Amino acid sequence: MRQLIVSLADRSYPILIASGLLARVDLIVEKLSSRHVAIVSNDTVAPLYLKPLSDKLRDAGVKVTEIILADGEKYKNSATLGQIYDALLEARCDRGTTLIALGGGVVGDLAGYAAATYQRGIPFIQIPTTLLSQVDSSVGGKTGINHPLGKNMIGAFWQPQLVLADTDTISTLPGRELSAGLAEIIKYGLIRDAEFLIWLESNVEQLVARDSAALSYAIECSCTNKAEVVAGDERETSKEGGRALLNLGHTFGHAIETGLGYGVWLHGEAVAAGMVMAAELSCRLGWISRDDVSRTAHLLKRAGLPVRGPALGVERYWEMMGHDKKVIAGALRLVLLKHIGEAVTWEGAPKEDVLAAIAACCDG
Ligand code: NAD
Ligand code: GLY
Question: Is the per-residue pLDDT at 326 higher than 90?
Answer without folding.
Answer: no
